[in-house]
Structures are given as C-alpha cells and as structure tokens.
Amino acid sequence: MTIERVNPPELSPPTGxxxxxxxxxxxxxxxxxxxxxxxxxxxxxxxxxxQFERALANLLIALHAAGGVPSDLVRVTVYTTDVDDYxxxxxxxxxxxxxxxxxxxxxxxxxxxxxxxxxxxxxxxxGVAVPA
Length: 132
Known about the structure:
With 132 residues, this protein is α+β, with helices and mostly antiparallel strands. It is built from 3 helices and 6 strands; from the N terminus they run E-E-E-H-E-H-H-E-E. The mean pLDDT is 96.
C-alpha cells in the first residue's frame, strides 16, 4: 500500500491538509462521523477545541479498531456548527491534530452545518483510510 500526498506549487500552500492524496492498496476503511460522545453516549466538552479533540480521538479509535493508523487517512471531512469559531480556533485545532494524528495530512474539507445529529455537538469528523 502506498499513499502519496500531492500539493502542486500552482495552488496556495496547504496548512493542515493536503490538496490531493493518492492511495494504492487493497482495502478501504470508511469511518462514520464521530462527535465528542463518551462511552455513555453523552457529549463531553463545552468548547469547540475540547469537542474536536474528543471527536478526533473517537475517529482514531475506530480507525485503529479497523486495523489502521492516522497516516492511513486519505480523506477527512469536518462538519461544524460555527465556521467562524472553527477558523478562530484553527491554530489550536492544528496542534490537537498534530498531537493525536501527526503531520501526514489527508485531503480535508470543513463544512458549516446548521446542526449535527447530537444536538450539543459542535463538530463531527468522518473519513476514509487505506490501511496497509
């Protein structure tokens, strides 16, 4: 399995994401949207950074259980109920990402939504991975 992150010089330099990711492998893992739910099904954390950290940790737990590691992520979509709040916390969210998932960034998008399934959730992450 090989994963290549592609960042053409003709595009703005990416910060915390890759413009494109190619993956060659025999298995795909599709990761369901993860919010800041604890094992009791309750949202934990009252701020976007706290919820982002838990949601990312939950995504990585699911990935690990499916036989993958963070560098296997090729695509992550972040859904947030407040894009301005997300942008305002971007440096902190980047530090959380690097601490939990490293610097092998997947192709990413941030999408503003009116509300998430869990009414108290401020952020949700889903993704696709190509484990070895």
